[in-house]
Amino acid sequence: MIGFERGLATAKGLFLPAFAAVLLSGCVVGPDYQTPLLAMPASWSGQKAAKPAKPAQLSKWWQRLRDRELNALVEDAVAGNLDVATAKAKIREARASYRQSVGTLFPSADGSASATRNRAAATTAGTSASATYDQYQAGFDASWELDLFGANRRSVEAARYGLDASEEELRSTLLTLVGDVTSNYVQARGYQARIALAERSAASQRQTARLTRTMALAGTATAADVAKAEGQASSTEADVPSLRAGYAEAVHRLSVLTGRPPAALSERLKRAAPIPAPRLPIPTGVPADILLARPDVRLAERQYAQYTARIGQAEAARYPSVSLTGDISTTALRVGDLGKNSTIGWSFGPTLSVPLFNAGQLKAAVDVAKAQRDQYFIAYKSVVLTALEDVENALVSLAQERIRNGKLGSSAKSYGDAAQLERTLYKAGETSLLDVLDAERSLYSAEDTLLQSRVSIATDYIALNKALGGGWDGTIDSARPEIVDVGTGPHLASTTQ
Hints:
Elements: H1 2-24, H2 68-80, H3 82-103, E1 108-124, E2 127-146, H4 151-217, H5 223-237, H6 239-257, H7 290-293, H8 295-316, E3 321-332, E4 344-353, H9 361-427, H10 433-468
Antiparallel strand pairs: 1-2, 2-3, 3-4
Helix pairs in contact: 2-4, 3-4, 4-5, 4-6, 4-8, 4-10, 5-10, 8-9, 9-10
């Protein structure tokens, strides 16, 4: 009875400090993360302050270009792009790291068992004898590090922010991907239109050269006039190869963006289609919207939060740590005797570790973590300013390009009328070939510039939507691995390499 009371007193002496440590485990050190508040402009430049801004229409913005082929290519790119696949793998990695961090908050346990055959020799009074016997042993070990000052919880917090950051990185990749697909598609259609214009203009200039040759035979034109007309037609035809090269590069890029070989889309896009034209103007919301819409801004904010939590990790290392360990084991000469009272041993108790002297290393580690946190906060503010700049630039570019396009349209129409009139007068012998060639050259240049302006309008529209944070907002399955392993259980090693 006395032994029992002593054992009970010992157990109380061990459990009470452990229980107190568990109660203290709700404590954390280091700064608690607070979402930063940044001063933002009330409106974009050029917007009327009296008129409330409508929310930006970012959902599937590329569909407002009204091109079914483009819509299909965006779908293909989201499904097959390799950068997207990499970003999804990073999310799976971040999720696994988060689960690893959560595991540190719980106890760990291990079991062990052994069976040995032993031979013992003994010498007594000049005689020797030996005996062989079997020994069996089984045991169970458990340990739990009490997170007194929140080092593990700060680690879990940082891992959770890291998971959020990886998801924002996927959104950023999708935003860039959709923008690149749309831009290259617009460029491809622009090259097709310019190639058709160059071939059409060259054919018209060849017709002028044939007329000049006929007039030269009749004595109303010179050989020099024929050479000039032929030279201008050849010069226009010389633009076609470089335009075809640009078209091929755009198509090759589109193929790679969709996860295909470079020439995979050549046949699919061979048939010409108009340059996509967006519906304008579009609502742009207010500058503060980008804090929630732009994935690169959200990514930078999550990274800032992650490194704030890491300060607490470093700070907790400067405080004492307590862990609870325990084990129970049983040893016997026969398997049937395992677990008998006479063969069981156990131990249980807390372990305290206190940092006494480390020459300032732990304090320096905290300072390192704080400096890293500051860097990510500065990076966050920089990303916000860059986002504001991107939107402002895109708004100005789109507005000015629309004005320019209107002027170019009027210019092309006027040059077209002039070229038609010069040809008529030339046939009647009332003007010189030089005037005709100049009119044709001016008309070709004006029409080509007008086509490039239409491409620029679509490109600026794409840039504005990207700057506002418009990307893919559909469902993305990031849980499925790229490589599905089979037969990963115990098996004979394969010699195939």
